[in-house]
Amino acid sequence: MEQKFKKMTQAELEENLDELQYNVTQNGATEPAFRNKYDHEFRKGIYVDITSGEPLFASSDKFDSGCGWPAFTKPIEKELIAEKMDNSYGMRRIEVRAKNTDSHLGHVFTDGPQSTGGLRYCINSASLNFIALEDMDSLGYSEYKKYVK
């Protein structure tokens, strides 16, 4: 069976991503806090991997954590995310990557809302594209509408 969401080739990544998007997803960079595309985006919809279009997070799980980056309580499906220990910059934290593309997304912390499990997925806007609920059918994401409440 052919995989529906495929990572762009190296040439496609270089052609389609801007410098920040490329550095975040491919080199593990972090975009500036509070100065990014989706920190204050609260319309209904889904957030997809910018390198493949694969749905990763839903607006229903997004919250304003005050950290300056989009924050989610959980991914759409845990199997879509890979986590690994990150000891960079003298810190000990858990890096979050898109499992199917190995793109860097951000980090997960244990200071999220306790009522939803206590996790805060702090994700770089530069690693995502937002698909508004009203556009999901026309863009081929109808099956993911069940995640948007």
Automatic annotation (TrEMBL):
The EC number(s) this enzyme carries: 1.8.4.12
UniProt-listed PROSITE patterns: MSRB
Gene3D superfamilies: Peptide methionine sulfoxide reductase (2.170.150.20)
Record keywords: Oxidoreductase
Stored Pfam families: SelR
Broad class of enzyme this protein falls into: oxidoreductase
UniProt record, GO biological process: protein repair; response to oxidative stress
Catalytic activity as recorded in UniProt: L-methionyl-[protein] + [thioredoxin]-disulfide + H2O = L-methionyl-(R)-S-oxide-[protein] + [thioredoxin]-dithiol
UniProt GO MF annotations: peptide-methionine (R)-S-oxide reductase activity
Sequence ranges assigned to domain MsrB in this UniProt record: 10-133
GO CC annotations, alphabetized: cytoplasm
Active site residues of this protein: C122
HAMAP family for the chain: MsrB
Family that this chain belongs to: Belongs to the MsrB Met sulfoxide reductase family.
Listed NCBIfam families: peptide-methionine (R)-S-oxide reductase MsrB (TIGR00357)
Protein name (database record): Peptide methionine sulfoxide reductase MsrB
Native organism: Mycoplasma amphoriforme A39
Gene: msrB
